[in-house]
Design goal:
By secondary structure, this protein is mainly β. Helix content is 11%, strand content 52%. Strands 7, 10, 12, 13, 15 and 16 form a six-stranded antiparallel sheet that branches. The radius of gyration is 22 Å and the shape is elongated. The chain starts with a helix and ends with a strand.
């Protein structure tokens, strides 16, 4: 009986570890740390340490408008006494603000070794003017190697709790060691008065085997000289494929193709796009593969 109980305990521990690997740190914003004149959710950094010096906080604990649990996070874009306009901002890493150029740079993150397919969460949004909010996810390794990225931009007001999804685009087969996430109540134009409530952030699904399966039927040739991509298909039966282009932070640029294929090739002309780094995705059913393009 003791051996059975011990084995059951080990299985439970391993199963719990697998679940924890998918969890966003304090993703439902239930735990907050009090610093006297402001609070921050555990694991998350905000502009509050700086803005609280003038009596303002862009991120606050919300207990009356909640989707899950006891609290949600309220992000508000504020005019900081004429010095700058500060968005409500949450990040699992760290950030620095240049008060002259008003540019924000991000880095760091939390330990993370899983490969989820997407981030989901719930939000309410009241934009000021033509403002919109953003959610970005970055999986990295050794602080410099980008394993996967994903981002959404949303301008549509939502007075009821609405779910969002951030699909992650992978362009490395390695496992990450760090996750960073950036949530902002404003991006461009940054407009005082925009309010975003966010709750119940979760990672969903996984990738890896699906990409390997698709890679046995599809291959790419990227001609940098004339900005074209040749895609070769080697399916054993007719398949519907979707080809899409993303920028380096995972934002969709254009859906390039949707067609039925089996064997053969097609050439996609990417002339006219600004020089930079892009991701091209081929998807068939639940399987997908992504390649990095530089031109």
């Amino acid at each position: 009986m003791k051996k059975l109980l011990l084995l059951t305990g080990i299985v439970t521990l391993l199963f719990s570890f697998q679940l924890i690997a998918q969890v966003v740190p304090n993703g439902s914003f239930e735990d907050w740390e009090n610093f006297g004149n402001y609070e921050n959710p555990y694991f998350w950094d905000t502009p509050n340490p700086e803005t609280s010096l003038v009596g303002l906080t862009t991120v606050t604990k919300e207990d009356s408008v909640v989707y899950d649990g006891t609290y949600s996070a309220r992000l508000t874009t504020l005019d900081i006494i004429g010095i700058m306009i500060a968005p409500g901002l949450l990040t699992l890493g760290s950030f620095d603000v240049d008060f002259i150029t008003q540019e924000i740079t991000f880095g760091g993150g939390e330990p993370f070794t899983d490969c989820p397919a997407k981030l989901t969460g719930w939000y309410k949004y009241t934009p000021a003017g033509s403002d919109f909010f953003s959610v970005s996810v970055y999986l990295t390794k050794n602080t410099v190697d980008t394993i996967a990225v994903g981002a959404i931009l949303q301008a549509t007001p939502a007075s009821e709790w609405t779910q969002f999804e951030v699909p992650l685009i992978y362009f490395s087969a390695e496992d990450p060691d760090t996750v960073n996430m950036i949530i902002m109540s404003s991006l461009a134009p940054i407009t005082p008065g925009s309010v975003l409530l966010v709750d119940k952030l979760e990672f969903q699904g996984g990738v890896g085997i699906e990409e390997e399966l698709l890679e046995s039927y599809v291959d790419f040739y990227h001609d940098q000289s004339n900005q074209t991509v040749q895609i070769n298909y080697h399916f054993t039966s007719e398949q519907t494929v979707f080809v899409s282009l993303f920028n380096i932070v995972g934002q969709p640029v254009k859906k390039l193709r949707e067609r039925k294929v089996m064997n053969g090739q097609e050439v996609i002309d990417l002339r006219g796009y600004p020089a930079g780094i892009y991701l091209i995705e081929v998807r068939s059913g639940s399987e997908r593969m992504v390649k990095k393009l530089i031109f």
